[in-house]
Amino acid sequence: MRILAIATNPETGASTRFRVLQWEPYLRAAGFSLTLDAFYSPDAASVLYRPGRYLSKLYYVLAGSLRRAVSLARAARNADILFIHREAFPLGQKILFKRLKSFSGPIVYDYDDAMFLPQRLGRGVLARIENLETPREVMALSAVVFAGNQFLADYARPHAKRVVVLPTCVDAGRFKPAEPAGRRDRCVVGWIGSHSTVKYLKSILPALERVADKHKFELYVVGGSTPLHAEGFPIVQVPWSLQREVVDFQRCDIGIYPLWNDPWTHGKCGFKGIQFMACGVPIVASLVGMNREIVEDGMNGFLASSEEDWVERLGLLLSDQALRQRFGEAGRRTVEERYSLLANAPRLVGSLQDAWNHRRRTA
Questions:
Q1: In a domain, 137, yes or no
Q2: d(CA 349, CA 32)
């Protein structure tokens, strides 16, 4: 059974990597083959979110549209199942969308963000012409929709035949605690994100400055290109790297996962928190959306809903190594039991097999 996975980004895109590609060994063991068709090339992905370079961006959109049109035209003879991930049709291109209706096999839709809300703030004209109806139109054609959390599943149910909540998972054999480090003179508080999420980190810098009045720590920032400045503690900023992906989580003594409380963040799947916890790193996360399911406050991490919460709970972890170890071990167990590939592969594989068998019976 040949699965053609249609995605926006190549392997360098975290969502493509974790919600599509890392399932390949489990799919192969169940008799599926997986081929990825990315709208953007790796070169395109490296420039799309940088300022300027508008001609290059236009070229990559046109090239991706042509490549996607060709792959969909050939899908009938190259695939048995279409696995559509997130923005298979950037800007909701209707010409390409119509090709789906002629596909004879089952279609599966997978998403891990609130694609139905106005998002991608700062995209200017692209944000204004983006078609927000495309996700639900694809859902209506799908045999099953994989939703990254309950908020996304609730949106999908009126539009889809079947909805399965499938969290964004980690390979617990790869994301794992590091060997104990030697003694350090200060703890490392880590944040890992992107250009679009660094605003959440900036919003809690005043709380971190208050924490620094009583505790020594270093803030380790991965992926936010905006230079950050704060009083009372050093900030180390490094670019995100696929080769350093696991090591960056393991380097931290405490992970922080701040978010704002709005509909867009309710669609997020808590994945940075899951990655920290898989690596045995205790976390403090905002009391928002799926974080409330992942983090059992005071058991495997802390939740924060105010500046006072951030100050108090970071202070507790910074001053108590035994508490950090206890939370780290509990968080690791949470991931192994609920958010690992091994725990969720049967749900994914079973749903795909059901979709395939149903289509064969009704063909």
A1: yes
A2: 9
